[in-house]
Amino acid sequence: MTAEKRTFQAEVSKLLKIVANSLYSEREVFLRELISNASDACDKLRYLALTNPDLTTGDGEFKIRIAADKDAKTLTLSDNGIGMSAEELNDNLGTIARSGTEAFVSELSGDEKKDAGLIGQFGVGFYSAFMIADKVEVLTKRAGEAKAHLWTSDGLGEYTISDAEKANRGTIITMHLKEDALEFLEEQRLQHIVKRYSDHIPVPILFVAKTDAGEEEKALNEASALWTRAKSEISEEQYKEFYHHAAHAFDDPWATLHWKAEGVIEYSSLLYVPTQRPFDLFHPERKNRVKLYVKRVFITDDCEGLVPEYLRFLRGVIDCEDLPLNVSRELLQRNPVLQKISSAVTKRVLSELSKKAEKEPEEYAKFWDAFGPVMKEGLYADGTEHKETLLSLVRFKTTESDKLVSLKDYAERMKEGQEAIYYIIGESPEALLNSPHLEGFKAKGVEVLLLTDPIDDFWLQAMFEGYEGKPFKSITRGSADLDAVKGGADEKPEDGKKDEEAKQDAGAEIAPLIASLKLALGDTVKDVRESKRLTDSPVCLIADEGDMDINLERLLRQHKQLEQATPRVLEINAKHAVIKTLAKRVKAGKTGQELEDAAYLLLDQARIMEGEAVPDPKAFARRLALAMERGLAV
């Protein structure tokens, strides 16, 4: 085919602009990114050759070669990995042809320094070549194919793809260096970069120098798999750079977990917890990014079941000695050895998180801010195997503390007579703290968990046994009988009356109003009751004991999983001035249109406090105007 000129996808143009201006604090890491991609290409071909040995016939020794031409001012990096077809060239270098593209682009904020942290996670480190080059050529031939192809671009908006000649499989990247980047043609400079960033790459990296006798290859890296070495032989810098390679990330790891399991099943594991939340963490596919190796041979970086979904933020490598090299990816998921490894890895990771939570609570709080919503998925999906450990790891914001609180902390602070762990679910802690449902709990000094993650509505439904025998109870559903709880602003009955006698008197006063409100509102509400949770607000809406919690229903309706809203219970505060006034009017026989208008105004007020829209804004405005008119006329 003739050279075909194409335009970069809009998202790629954004990336190139960010790369050119502020992606890296040091330009030298372009070489790390290109070597990492070349290593991945070799890994992929090594795996395919297990079932198709012809792909590597005559060239079975994988390597990455670097050559510098000072006269032409070009730096070349080549590999004999899997190579690319013309379609793959376009998908990999001209567009972002990966699931999660939309999520990735939506994360780009326009703040180039902030966006820089997202780019590496997306696996597009190739574009870093344009930091040091004003023209890049990619000559590639896919293993098993006859045709080669050439991709060329100056990184300014367009690229061309044409047919080309190449004897062997693999990829050659030629960078025409900018005048201020000629330092990257020096052998010592390149050697230093490789040693610093890519010494752990398990593929030989060779510097090719021209001599009178021809070409001379010099090894630049140790070329042994980092995870197979003893921990005492690995520096913190080497661990960090392997994380950058394995995760395609620019942040530093929050935690590094390296161990070798021996016994019935042998495997090595080098796993990392990122500091920064990966952009695709909540993508519907929920894929993990831990690479599976068998006897140092890369198998896949998308092995379902290797780690549970709620640990999908993990990055790194698991290398097993007890799996057959030619096992298919489909059979892997059902392999009992893999299932045992998954269980053991999960247990080890949760154990390390528990130690961190206990010894470094402030650092653990940073982890929880980034990955807490994902961890809570385990409480919903993991069954019983790790539930106790997960419950000990969960942290909450509450009404009583500015710091994150564990369930153990909460249980130790429970009031005398308190039998449940109370919680409220909503969109933000700030909104929840203003909820009228909290009033009675605040008055009693009862701590309430403030939950704001969508998963909270679901994992709590699976907590049938509660925590250490204490059930979880939503303060927006069912009754809130706080009488048994000791402490707080317990009110004394007036005139020396006994508690029970005072309650009967109050009930008798409010009963006619409750009956009138039920009659006026009809099927709009499920019931009208006197509230034990309100102290300042006149009304609130709650879900009845057996009904769906208010926030869960709202969530399902937003996602079109539920069409019709369930009528709620309207609770009224018998001590509030508005309610007292209405009760007196009803007792005096004034139960006409004014009372009906007041009933709907109270209902709409309760809806607004729940963050919901009133169903009939025009009627609400009319009733509000009439009420103001009557009030101002007094």
From TrEMBL:
Residues 488-504 have a biased composition (Basic and acidic residues). Pfam families: HATPase_c_3, HSP90. Keywords: ATP-binding, Chaperone, Cytoplasm, Nucleotide-binding, Stress response. GO terms for molecular function: ATP binding; ATP hydrolysis activity; ATP-dependent protein folding chaperone; unfolded protein binding. Its main location: cytoplasm. Residues 1-329 are annotated as: A. InterPro entries: HATPase_C_sf, HATPase_dom, HSP90_C, Hsp90_fam, Hsp90_N, Ribosomal_Su5_D2-typ_SF. Residues 484-504 are annotated as: Disordered. ATP binds at residues 33, 37, 79, 84, 92, 99-100, 121-126, 171, 329. The keyword Nuclease does not apply. Residues 26-181 form the Histidine kinase/HSP90-like ATPase domain. GO terms for cellular component: cytoplasm. It is found in: Cytoplasm. The keyword Nucleotide-binding applies. Residues 555-634 are annotated as: C. Homodimer. Molecular chaperone. Has ATPase activity. Belongs to the heat shock protein 90 family. This is Chaperone protein HtpG. The gene is htpG.
